[in-house]
Automatic annotation (TrEMBL):
This is GIY-YIG catalytic domain-containing protein. It comes from Succiniclasticum ruminis DSM 9236. Signal peptide: none annotated. InterPro entries: GIY-YIG_endonuc, GIY-YIG_endonuc_sf. It comes from the Bacteria. PROSITE patterns: GIY_YIG.
Length: 277
């Protein structure tokens, strides 16, 4: 079966190809653009897309295709823009650009397969276009990984915030009718907090939404952290995971017993952020 290539969708003609470059966004050793995209897709198409540390890769009037690495050989088309202006940017080179609206329906939905063997992350499109194979067109714009199962939940504050604020469907469906015993980890100190979500708390989704809203969810020790170190400390350092999950029919008293068991087991009153058993 003949491969479907990216330009089969974009349909740039031979006269246009010489004026098109591709910007491939990958982990820079410090920050993963995929994490930024899950939180704020627009930032990838501005901050990552239109900034280079060393040299000027685009000319005024040139078309720039933006790809974001999802995993080993899979890339997501996030935008296509035409460069309109050079910008003075501290410690690098910047641009202004206008998005090509005729391709809007493809942004965040087209997944291509490409094995990049070069060190350069900016390439002439005509040199690589025959290697950009379209392997999937998503029904809606990519908004992050699907729910991985209750045993595999480990979220930063920003990941949790994104799930809740963008109402990512598989996550919302998995969390909204579940009771649970959960764990919050302060990655800066190693201290732990064990909590529970019951019918009284309106299930796990609501409980975790409370943490997104204010950082402490009404818990005494966590309130002290926010007051002392600020909400930004929570956003930077807190991690959320599930110890045990139960369906909505499970008795709340049993879940509270399991919460106490985990508090004793992990010593979260002596060495963590729980103020009681």
């Amino acid at each position: 079966m003949k491969k479907i290539l990216l330009n089969d969708l974009l349909r740039f003609n031979e006269e246009e190809l010489w004026n098109i470059r591709v910007k491939m966004n990958v982990h820079d050793g410090t920050t993963n653009p995929l994490d930024d995209y899950k939180t704020n897709p627009d930032y990838i198409n501005t901050g990552w897309f239109l900034f280079h540390k060393k040299r000027r890769y685009f000319r005024i009037g040139q078309i720039a295709i933006c790809l974001l690495k999802i995993d080993y050989d899979r890339w997501l088309l996030t935008t296509i823009k035409r460069i309109t202006k050079y910008l003075d940017v501290e410690n690098g080179v910047g641009y202004e650009a206008e998005e090509l609206e005729e391709y809007t329906q493809l942004y965040g939905r087209v997944v291509i397969k490409y094995h990049n063997t070069a060190m350069r992350m900016v390439r002439k499109f005509e040199y690589v276009m025959n290697d950009y194979e379209v392997i999937e067109i998503l029904p809606v714009a990519y908004d992050g990984d699907d729910f991985p199962g209750y045993d595999n939940v480990r979220l930063s504050y920003y990941q949790l915030e994104t799930i809740i604020k963008r109402q990512r469907s598989t996550w919302i469906a998995a969390l909204q009718n579940q009771k649970a015993v959960y764990l919050i980890t302060d990655k800066a100190t190693g201290k732990l907090y064990v909590g529970s979500a019951t019918a009284q708390d309106k299930m796990l989704l609501q409980r975790w939404s409370d943490y997104v809203a204010n950082g402490h969810g009404g818990n005494t020790e966590l309130k002290s952290i926010v007051k002392e170190k600020g909400f930004d400390y929570v956003k930077k350092n807190f991690q959320y995971s599930i110890l045990e999950n139960y369906n909505a029919r499970m008795d709340d008293d049993y879940i509270k017993k399991r919460e106490r068991w985990w508090k004793y087991t992990l010593c979260t009153k002596q060495w963590g952020y729980n103020d009681n058993y």
